[in-house]
């Protein structure tokens, strides 16, 4: 068990989140985002970190770029990294963003024509304690449109896994149905989306950067063959396979 971080570090991170939060754009900035069929969108990215089970510092940082709309693999980057920042709830981005950003920068240097036009992040965006989750952090620092898609509900700002929440999930009849994640103050921070007819458990979509919530939800749905959008699913799968091939004795686990 790692030691708790110094109070000064958490205060520094809070200040940095507040500063960067002011740069988030939660509206559509690209023409393709305003198209009903995302005309002009050709490349979608996905990022994820997978850890060796029992080791919370060594991980595989993964980037994939898929074609759109057929979701074929165009590019992948798998790299072992060592995380040095401590894990603190609400500050996951300070552990993971540097390595995901480096993967995007390597792509820009090696094959800039394959740079994704939007990046799916396995985590939250504005649906966060301070409205600045991993998808926002990566979006602001990379300058790319980002969408946060979480598999589990982050219970923040008055949104809880309550009976009401469960009844809202039960009311999602088909793929594409959704309901807003509304904070105690009345602000919509994201949406719970039933992403497939075959999946009863929703995903939680929120804006990362340079895209509206409506476009983020529509795009997430259009990228889902299964419950999780294909860019994130492929990033998760390929990072786990990378670990299995190098550490066959250890099971891998995906990051939060």
TrEMBL record:
Cofactor annotation: Mg(2+)
CDD domains with a match to the protein in the record: Endonuclease_V
Locations listed in the record: Cytoplasm, Stress granule; Nucleus, Nucleolus
GO cellular component, one term: cytoplasmic stress granule
Pfam name, any one: Endonuclease_5
Isomerase keyword on record: no
Keywords, alphabetical: Cytoplasm, DNA-binding, Endonuclease, Hydrolase, Magnesium, Metal-binding, Nuclease, Nucleus, RNA-binding
One MF annotation (Gene Ontology) recorded for this entry: DNA binding
InterPro entries: Endonuclease-V
Domain of life: Eukaryota
One GO biological process term: DNA repair
Signal sequence interval, chain numbering: none
Protein task: Endoribonuclease that specifically cleaves inosine-containing RNAs: cleaves RNA at the second phosphodiester bond 3' to inosine. Active against both single-stranded and double-stranded RNAs. Has strong preference for single-stranded RNAs (ssRNAs) toward double-stranded RNAs (dsRNAs). Cleaves mRNAs and tRNAs containing inosine. Also able to cleave structure-specific dsRNA substrates containing the specific sites 5'-IIUI-3' and 5'-UIUU-3'.
Family: Belongs to the endonuclease V family.
Quaternary data: Monomer. Interacts with PABPC1; the interaction is RNA-dependent and stimulates ENDOV activity.
UniProt protein name: Endonuclease V
Lineage: Eukaryota, Metazoa, Chordata, Craniata, Vertebrata
